[in-house]
Specification:
Elements: E1 4-13, E2 16-26, E3 31-35, H1 42-50, E4 57-62, E5 65-67, H2 72-77, E6 80-84, H3 95-100, E7 106-107, E8 110-111, H4 113-125, H5 146-158, E9 164-168, H6 176-191, E10 195-199, H7 203-209, E11 212-217, E12 220-226, H8 232-240, H9 247-252, E13 263-271, E14 276-283, E15 287-291, H10 298-306, E16 313-318, E17 321-323, H11 328-333, E18 336-339, H12 343-347, H13 354-359, E19 367-368, E20 372-373, H14 375-389, H15 405-417, E21 423-427, H16 435-450, E22 454-458, H17 462-468, E23 471-476, E24 479-485, H18 491-498, H19 503-506
Parallel strand pairs: 3-10, 3-11, 6-9, 9-10, 15-22, 15-23, 18-21, 21-22
Antiparallel strand pairs: 1-2, 1-4, 4-5, 7-8, 11-12, 13-14, 13-16, 16-17, 19-20, 23-24
């Protein structure tokens, strides 16, 4: 009998059936992948196991004993720990305080500071090489980079001493060396008999780490496979069904748009804490990529252009007019939109309805005399975007948090389209998105450019940049080190440029 057995699990959120009889079996001492397109029920199944979602129906058996998990404390009692892409950290608290949340050490009501510090230091020790330089246990978590915050989230789960560890897209924002640290930790835990459930949209990570994988589709379990005997193509086929193409085929089908000679966006010698003299231009109807190793200033450049990161020198020019704005409000007025890399904290009002999230940027379009909201008009505009972007929802009034990751990302994009932007900045827009949702976002990007909108995109996927972009500016340590254009935009050239290797050295 498997150590963990979940059977016939059902869960409905409003009109959306997230789980429809899903099942999962995991052995001790194995890394078990949980795969499926967005909306397939992966995260919901994991949250049922973690006690943050109560199932409508289903059974959970651990080590031969049927148990009830209705809240997180029940999962903690069964030594189940989870780390998600959506962080559970408190930004204003220190690293030590975050690591100790829920496991404070004390005697007679008094905190044992020495024991607490030793626990936190031990929890963080293995992950420190992959974190920001110069941090200490007293460093505020909110000051850390996204990758370092994610490592803290994972360290907090590992420190609980779990018998079952859930990593749900916990590597999505990590660099390769940080992923390697996580994998080393997972292998050590597995050697001690821990059962690990691993969710990732990076199939190469699943192939590298997992022993077996269970595939979900539309809330149902469709297969459990041995990873050593299954190809990536077979996994994609199981995930998306017979009607969808693999990612490579999707890339081949991306339509090219005729680019105008009119320069829509220009940056001149941009300087900030992370940027060192960035000069680029993007034309009307063009997709311009930001390449290079992640963390080289790509995201910072997008945020500087959007006005929410301070600019110390340089100039932003839109449609030939130098801009003086230094806030997002000014950027929006100039026709700029930003789809941020962290949709959960920067792009959405998670507990608010889909209706409000879609209307929040362009609320003026649904008001009378700029004061009174016309609910009927707001619903009509939101429904129009839902239909246009094919967002899978139950009701327009459901909280946006009930949607899958891919559909949440469409809401983030859709809210900006309601504001009729001329320049759209995309920060890794398909991170944590399945193949089918990626294809729809690629179609949307080319639809925008066909309407004359300029798109500037940062992506951690070189294949994506090669397929989408007319030009790519490769960044290294806050500078542009190479510009690839036309036939030069290939994965080979992107990788070589990112590593500062020229063609002659590669040969």
């Amino acid at each position: 009998m498997p150590y963990l057995h979940m059977a016939n699990v059902h869960k409905r959120f409003g009109g959306v059936r997230a789980l429809q009889g899903a099942s999962l079996e995991v052995e001790t001492g194995e890394v078990h992948g949980l795969l499926g397109p967005n909306g397939s029920g992966k995260s919901t199944l994991n949250k049922v196991l973690s006690g943050t979602v109560s199932p409508d129906q289903g059974t959970i058996v651990i080590n031969g004993v049927q148990i009830g998990i209705s809240k997180p404390v029940d999962a903690h009692r069964e030594r189940i720990a989870s780390a998600y892409q959506q962080l559970s950290l408190v930004p204003d608290l220190s690293l030590q305080d975050n690591l100790l949340l829920g496991t404070e050490f004390g005697t007679a009501g008094f905190v044992d500071r020495r024991a607490s510090r030793e626990y936190a230091a031990q929890a963080l020790e293995h992950f420190l090489p992959g974190m920001d330089k110069g941090i200490t246990l007293s460093t505020e978590v909110g000051s850390l980079s996204p990758g370092s915050q994610q490592l803290v989230e994972i360290a907090k789960a590992v420190a609980r001493g779990p018998r079952i560890l859930v990593l749900d897209e916990a590597t999505a924002s990590l660099r390769r060396e940080q992923v390697d640290l996580v994998f080393e930790t997972v292998r050590t835990l597995v050697a001690d008999g821990v059962a690990v459930i691993f969710v990732s949209h990076r199939l190469e990570e699943v192939k590298e780490l997992c022993d077996r994988a269970t595939i979900l589709r539309n809330g149902r379990t469709v297969a459990t496979v041995e990873m050593a005997e299954t190809t990536e193509a077979q996994l994609v086929r199981l995930m998306v069904g017979e009607v969808a193409d693999a990612q490579e085929e999707i890339f081949e089908q991306i339509a090219r748009v005729q680019v105008s000679d009119e320069v829509k966006l220009e940056t001149r010698n941009l300087q900030s804490s992370r940027l060192h003299g960035v000069n680029l231009e993007a034309r009307k109807g063009e997709v311009v990529g930001l390449g290079g190793l992640q963390g080289q200033g790509q995201s910072e450049l997008l945020h500087v252009i959007f006005g929410d990161s301070p600019l110390t020198d340089g100039e932003i020019v839109i449609a030939g007019t130098p801009q003086k704005y230094r806030t997002p409000r000014g950027a929006i007025a100039a026709g700029v939109a930003l789809v941020p890399g962290d949709r959960s904290t920067q792009g959405l009002l998670s507990v608010r309805p889909i209706l409000e999230n879609l209307n929040v940027v362009a609320l003026r379009r649904s008001t009378w005399a700029g004061w009174f909201i016309n609910i009927k008009r707001a619903k009509a505009l939101a429904t129009e975007q839902v239909d246009r972007l094919r967002i899978k929802i139950g009701s327009i009034m459901d909280p946006v948090s009930t949607l899958s990751g891919g559909n949440q990302q469409k809401v983030v994009i859709g809210k900006w389209l309601m504001n009729d932007p001329q320049i759209v900045l995309l920060d890794d827009p398909t991170k944590g998105i399945d193949v089918g949702a990626k294809a729809e976002i690629y179609d949307l990007i080319r639809l925008l450019t066909s309407e004359g909108i300029t798109v500037l995109i940062n992506s951690s996927d070189d294949n994506e940049l090669a397929a989408l972009c007319d030009r790519v500016f490769v960044m290294y340590e806050g500078e542009i080190v190479r510009v690839l254009e036309g036939d030069e935009v290939t994965q080979d050239n992107l990788v070589a440029s990112a590593l500062r290797v020229d063609g002659e050295k590669r040969a």
